Amino acid sequence: MIILRFLIPLVIMIFLEATFLKLFIRKVKWLKHLLYSVIINLISSIPGAWLTITTQHLCGPVLPLFFLGFIFQLLLISAIYRKHIKWYKGLGVAVVVNICSYIGIFIISALLSGIVSSCYYYSQKHKAYSEKSSAAVLKDEIGSIYTVQKVGQCEYYLKVYDVNESKWRVAARDNNDIVFYYQEGWDITKNYLAYPTGSEFSLIDRKDYHQIKSIQVEADELKFSPDEKLIAALTEGDDVSIERDMTNFKGGIVVSTGGIPVESLGYKSTLTIVDIDTEKILVEENDIVIFDDGLSWSPDGTKLLLSSFKDQEADFTENLRDMENAGFVLKQAKPKFVCEYDIATKTLTPLFEGYCGKYSPGGERILYIKDNNFMLYSCKSQETKLLNKVYERDPMPQWSPNGKSIVAFEDVKSMDFANMFSLRIYVMSIDDPNEMLIIGKEQEYKGLRWIAE
After folding, report:
1. Is the pLDDT of residue 10 over 80?
2. Cβ partners under 8 Å of residue 248, min gap 6
3. What is the reported pTM?
4. Which of 42, 67, 69, 168 is deepest in the core (most CB within 10 A)?
């Protein structure tokens, strides 16, 4: 598969270059142009291959790779066609041919990617809908599922799915007291809605969705305690990311930035716990390494689950050292761990490898993600069960109030720019993970919550 990713663009480049050369140098037959183009592209690929191997990176540095190949092609075209045109004209022809070829390969690659992705998307779409059509998932379930959905160009509504009636409705729209635009760190309970607004967060009354007050605590993510008396606020510091060496990649989450796979080393974050009534800060922990995988309160309100390293300082420092020693390419990042923060003792304890840990409503089980799969950990037997595949990089899973199901996001594969950030919402049974139901079709959503009304 990796070979094809490089071979197909190379073949397209050869044919395009031969065609453009024929337009400029008509004395030479097209087949001869094609032969020259093969020689030129194979030789000009050598410096790029060398750069890729020496940097130990699958794709190599993109800009140096481009310019090295470009310069080699200019020199080769001028040398091979020196009998037909003067050297300075050859350089001009080489520049035009290369620019036209790169534009052409970009357009053709984009069209091919669009066709392939569309075919895959439609095949997966019909497959997903046929596999996830069991309404039995919601049998005996209670409560309501909330999400923020994009409506129009820049409007976001708080929408609610009534589990008993199996239908969506608008719970709240933007007004003078609440703006949902760009809000992902919000949380909702039976009585309150809270969302961050920069250096503070707003507390909203659920009865009429108007502001009760603003609390002077900076937050990127908020989470109410089960008794609605406290709220945990997570403020993310600067993200420390590194390029990822894909040679021995064994799974996990990889984000591509500018064509270069990178992996987050976490955030040096601040965790704050505030009393909602008095606005008193009960806990303020600075410089905790936390991944942005969500917070989860224990049912008794004494602990929080979050994602971090097994050994915070040692693993974080070792990753940074490895990153520097490897020329900013990390061979194997330290794995994420589901960790438990004890509010009374202010201690962080690693539980097991994984991330996105969520306490079940009764607290006897923990849902988490490992190796792109949903896992279920029993706190009593300390056994782990594999549930099902994760269908989205950030699925934001949430337990149902009775602990029988979870709701999560599923990624929609689309090359259509309008649907590039679209997701589906599906409910999955814990007892039978193959039993699923899609309740929210292709839309842009921000955040998920399932609460008992």
Report:
1. no
2. 331, 332
3. 0.65
4. 69
